[in-house]
Design brief:
With about 70 residues, the protein is mostly helical. It contains 3 helices and no strands.
Length: about 70
């Protein structure tokens, strides 16, 4: 059975990976306003851009393991 220290390190590692992942997936949203100003996009187009990005991230999460193959455990 793992020690309490090992569990604490494992928990903190998972929490850190989750935090980095959540921060990384929201970074592009800051430039959508710049796109709207620079290219004259309407709010509807910005919504479509964001939706495409969100779907792409979900698909990557869902199929990432499949694309890496069975040996990447």
């Amino acid at each position: 059975m793992p020690s309490t220290t090992a569990r604490s390190h494992a928990y903190l590692s998972v929490a850190l990976v989750f935090l980095i992942n959540m921060c990384g997936t929201t970074l592009p949203t800051a430039i959508y306003r710049d796109y709207q100003i620079a290219f004259g996009f309407s709010p509807a187009i910005i919504t479509v851009i964001y939706a495409c990005y969100a779907v792409g991230v979900l698909l990557l999460v869902a199929t990432g393991r499949i694309s890496l193959g069975a040996s990447a455990c």
